[in-house]
Design a protein that fits this description.
Length: about 350
């Protein structure tokens, strides 16, 4: 096939992504795992590692490719790689932690090939976001040591970069120490390979209003923004309705651009398994509102979202410019749970002492 448009160099492509994120709304894809499972891969496809989707990058790249093609066909700007579990804790449970780089690079390469094909055919630049999922262990609770986690994320990122990712997204994190391990592992990989890609941080907040270990949104922002991330936001766990207040806080206080990839609502358990009730028009409504209210630069979907969901999101936000924000960052310190602003209280204070022994 003769390309209608020659591909950009790696550096030019990354620069174009940065420019797009700074000037318009960039749309990513939706769910990956459910679409892979719909194609009913065999145990042989999984190399007897049932449920290890990352193995499909080398055994059934055609299945992975078909998911990327489905999303690019509805007009999204970028897709995430099939590498959500390509880290030390997740692959360690399958006893294949030595394959982190291999599976990460393979996943990025499949996505890169599809992105370049669509860019050549349509003239619309397409990008690849290297997915770095949280893994299965929480370092704050002592499930795994920080250095093992960080080094595994570095291997994940190195494979993604070698395979052609345009940005790295540390996503669905539930523990701030886990999040830092992912971000710093990604930074180490970029330094080791001499590249500079956009680094995205996407947090998972529960219906309780906090991350899994109890961290509030203010604590997360205070702890993570100094790490030099390019975007911060939320994905997974809930639908857009439950994310609104967290995004409001970020819009008011974050100097870092914002992103959001919600589930298709909260899952409803049925006899046939989990069902996500949010319709495509409802997701498009929510994302349009988030762009106009909170100035999101990157939108997409997570669990339960389909190419049809993203088709309608693309139609709704195409041509929109993110709302201009005037954030008011508040200096402070954060524990694992909450942020405490640095404020000097000049109010009058009276100290009294009771001498009544029965008092």
């Amino acid at each position: 096939m003769t390309d209608m448009f020659p591909p950009l160099s790696d550096r030019a492509r990354v620069a174009a992504l940065r420019e797009a994120l700074a000037t318009r709304v960039v749309v990513a894809d939706g769910a990956m795992g459910t679409m892979l499972q719909e194609q009913d891969p065999t145990l042989e496809d999984f190399q007897d590692l049932e449920g290890c989707n990352e193995v499909l990058n080398v055994t059934r790249p055609d299945i992975v490719r078909s998911v990327h093609e489905a999303y690019f066909s509805v007009g999204v700007d970028c897709v995430e790689t099939n590498t959500f579990g390509a880290n030390s804790s997740a692959l360690g449970e399958y006893e294949i932690a030595d394959r982190i780089v291999e599976l990460s690079e393979a996943g990025a390469r499949v996505a890169r090939e599809v992105a370049d094909e669509f860019a050549a055919k349509t003239g619309q630049q397409r990008w690849v976001l290297g997915s770095m999922g949280p893994g299965t262990k929480l370092p704050t609770l002592g499930h795994i040591t920080y250095d093992i986690l960080r080094d595994g994320f570095q291997q994940n990122a190195e494979g993604l970069i070698a395979g052609g990712a345009d940005a790295l997204i540390v996503e669905t994190t539930q523990d701030l120490l886990q999040t830092k391990a992912g971000l710093l592992g990604a930074r180490r990989a970029m330094e080791a390979l001499g590249v500079g890609l956009p680094l995205i941080c996407s947090l998972a907040f529960e219906t309780t209003g906090t991350m899994l270990l109890g961290s509030e949104i203010g604590a997360a922002l205070t702890a993570l923004e100094p790490l030099g991330i390019d975007l911060i936001g939320l994905n997974c766990s809930t639908g857009p309705a439950e994310m609104s207040e967290h995004l409001r806080h970020l819009a008011q206080h974050s100097t870092t651009p914002l992103m959001c990839m919600p589930n298709a609502g909260l899952p409803v358990l049925t006899k046939d398994g989990a069902y996500f009730p949010l319709t495509a028009p409802e997701l498009a409504d929510a994302q349009e509102n988030f762009v106009n209210s909170y100035g999101l630069s990157l939108v997409g979907g997570c669990c339960g979202t389909t190419p049809e969901h993203l088709r309608q999101v693309v139609e709704r936000v195409r041509g929109l410019t993110p709302a201009v924000r005037e954030p008011r960052p508040e200096p402070g310190a954060a524990s694992l749970y909450q942020a405490v602003p640095f404020r000097q209280d000049t109010a009058y204070m009276a100290i009294g002492e009771r001498t009544n022994a029965n008092g």
